[in-house]
Design brief:
The complex is a heterodimer of chains A (387) and B (223). Chain A has 15 helices and 2 strands. A two-stranded antiparallel ribbon of chain A has the order 1-2. In chain A, β1 and β2 form a beta hairpin. The longest helix of chain A has 36 residues. The two termini of chain A are 19 Å apart. Chain B has 223 residues and is an alpha/beta fold. In chain B, α6 links the parallel β5 and β6. In chain B, α2 packs across α8, α3 runs parallel beside α5 and α5 runs parallel beside α6. Chain B starts with 6 loop residues before the first strand and ends in a 5-residue tail after the last helix. The chains are: A mainly alpha (387), B alpha/beta (223). Chains A and B meet through α4 and α14 of A and β3, α3 and α4 of B.
């Protein structure tokens, strides 16, 4: 396994906080950084997903041919899609089981699940098309769309990183101007995280991760200055979150989405704040790891196995909500939920790595029937670099 | 069942004023599942769609445009954030906000729920947008649940304090449930109303809107 590093650490941090924030009303929610931060773990997760795309695209040694690259990225998108379908089905079953066990039919309404039970014919089509998403299960669908677009992103970047940045910015501005978002179906509505705007933070993560070209080189060369520039943004975003300030959507000038603090469309204020956080905290890992080595290794382990940990975390936060429903929301229940969650996420990371270690020890076992390893880049083969 | 025990009458000043100026009202329906008609036989039969039909029939020449933004299983705090953005983007004259059940299930602290709902209603009022609250569902098991009762009482209190229209769905559904032997109105899971139930609910909201529009105009104020 690779040693704890900055990217894995922050990815693990995002995963742990996503788990806590996805149990609404839980006591420990008040200790997550969301309370002092305009942007939250979702931005961090997508930014770092873009960052790790860099390592899937840039293999050490011989550069991949365009065809191999596309194949690899599409494979990755398929794995994430499969994960989304798997956790969605488990979540639906969990909701159904809880409603039977606790004799609580209203639970069937939770998290946009009602349509699955009440209009199953159309909704099953929607689930497969990702146009029907359960509440709090809406990050992976975004990730699937982004990874499906990843071949275009990677090839544009090969042509010119600046061209990629310009195209991504143009799409962001265009989508914000018109409030463009993908529709949901059969429940009439919009995607909770708009892929047309969220692609920008993904692309920024991808571009800044590239150390030798464009934005990445710029960010590294001017990191000291950028860190100072970031401070006022981080502070302003922190104060806004702390005092629950958000501009009144009816008072802001047109085009309104540019001036709101909206999560669905990733308004510029949230985007800037997220990037400022990166600027300010990039490089801080070595101090954190020195001061709190167990925290550094634990969160890095989560980050190294992010897809598995994310999936287990999503299902666990739903289980946590059901526990709070049955046993009441109180500090006792909440503490149990958190402890079980933290341990289970750790076990998930550990088991994933144990399996990888076992596989490495046994060596490659070619078999005509075994599928090719397109999946999540086995943690060991991924190269992540501290910024 | 008398209308007054299902929908507490209250004025809809902004819808009334709008209809005096133009022939179109825009309605934003937001909130938990029944907004899109779970349990109804097709999407077109949900209560906002039925409300449009009834209003357009009753008020000839009036065009009612419904924007549906229901997400099932969402707590009021999440809806409240979404509501502000949707209001800014769609400019409705009336907001139908269905809420309560999921906050009771998620055990959201009652004062937090009250703050969320009250501040959102005040914001809508300041911006001259009417709001109708649609209360939580009746189910036999939850009729005795403390969180459920607390949320129900809070909604009634807020509606009274803010003088806004509140559709007491719990009472309506309990009534329908007790009448089941005569007519099947509640769908299989005992929680969601089927088409007839939706029609009944849409009619109550429509009656309240129409009563506000005309009774107020023709009857002198009583004080």
């Amino acid at each position: 396994m690779r040693a704890p590093n900055e990217i894995d650490f922050w990815r693990g941090f995002a995963l742990a906080t996503i788990f806590i924030n996805h149990v609404p009303g839980i006591f420990y929610e008040r200790f997550t950084h969301r309370n002092v931060s305009l942007s939250d773990s979702a931005e961090m997760f997508v930014f770092l997903a873009g960052w790790s795309l860099r390592f899937v695209v840039t293999s050490p040694g011989q550069p991949l041919s365009a065809f191999r690259l596309v194949l690899r990225l599409v494979g990755r998108a398929v794995v994430i899609y499969a994960a989304q379908i798997l956790i969605t089905v488990i979540a639906i079953a969990l909701i159904a089981a809880a409603s039977i066990y606790f004799d609580a039919p209203p639970l069937l309404e939770w998290h946009n699940a009602a349509a699955v039970f009440e209009e199953p014919v159309a909704t099953h089509v929607g689930l497969v098309l990702l146009s029907h998403q359960l509440g709090y299960f809406n990050i992976l669908p975004l990730y699937v769309v982004l990874m499906t677009a990843a071949p275009v992103i990677a090839l544009l970047d090969r042509a010119s990183p600046w061209l990629l940045l310009a195209a991504s910015l143009a799409l962001y501005v265009y989508a914000l101007l018109g409030g463009m978002n993908l529709p949901t179906w059969p429940v009439e509505g919009r995607w909770f995280l708009d892929p047309l705007t969220w692609q920008l933070i993904f692309v920024l993560g991808f571009l800044i991760a590239g150390p030798d070209t464009g934005l990445g080189r710029f960010a590294r060369r001017h990191h000291r200055v950028l860190r100072i520039v970031a401070i006022p943004f981080v502070l302003a975003g922190g104060l806004a979150a702390w005092f629950h300030y958000s501009p009144d959507p009816l008072r802001v000038p047109d085009p309104k989405l540019f001036f709101m603090f909206d999560k669905t469309f990733l308004s510029p204020a949230r985007l800037l704040h997220a990037i400022a956080l990166v600027g300010l905290f990039a490089g801080s890992f070595r101090y954190i790891a020195r001061a709190l080595p167990p925290l550094g290794s634990y969160l890095s382990m989560l980050g190294r196995n992010s897809l598995n940990v994310f999936c287990v975390g999503s299902v666990l936060s739903l289980a946590g909500q059901i526990a709070r429903f049955e046993y009441g929301g109180g500090i006792g229940t909440d503490t149990v939920v958190i402890i079980i969650g933290i341990v289970a996420l750790g076990v998930t990371g550990w088991v994933s790595e144990w399996r990888d270690r076992l596989r490495a020890r046994l060596g490659p076992q070619p078999s005509p029937s075994s599928p090719p390893q397109v999946s999540s880049p086995p943690a060991s083969s991924r190269r992540a670099q501290p910024t | 069942m008398p209308s007054s025990s299902i929908a507490a009458p209250a004025p809809l000043p902004n819808v009334t004023a709008t209809l005096e100026q133009r022939k179109t009202i825009r309605v934003l329906a937001i909130g938990s599942s029944s907004t899109y008609g779970v349990g109804a036989s097709s999407g077109s039969k949900n209560y906002p769609a039925q409300l449009t039909d009834i209003l357009e029939k009753a008020l000839k020449g009036i065009n009612v445009e419904i924007i549906n933004r229901g997400v099932s299983g969402e707590v009021a705090k999440t809806t409240a954030e979404r509501l502000r953005v949707e209001v800014a983007l769609t400019h409705p004259d009336l907001v139908l906000w269905q809420l309560g059940t999921n906050d009771a299930l998620a055990r959201v602290p009652i004062d937090e729920f009250e703050d969320t709902v009250t501040s959102t209603i005040q914001w809508l009022k300041e911006n001259k947008i009417d709001v109708v609250l649609v209360g939580l569902q009746y189910t036999a098991r939850f009729a005795r649940d403390d969180s459920y009762a607390a949320i129900r009482d809070t909604l009634r209190k807020i509606a009274g304090q803010q003088n806004i229209l509140y559709v007491r769905r719990f009472e309506a559904m309990r009534y329908i449930s007790s009448m089941r032997s005569q007519q099947t109105m509640v769908s299989g899971d005992d929680l969601h109303l089927n088409d007839l139930g939706y029609h009944c609910m849409a009619e109550h909201i429509a009656h309240a809107v129409i009563a506000n529009l005309f009774v107020r105009r023709f009857r002198p104020p009583t004080n």
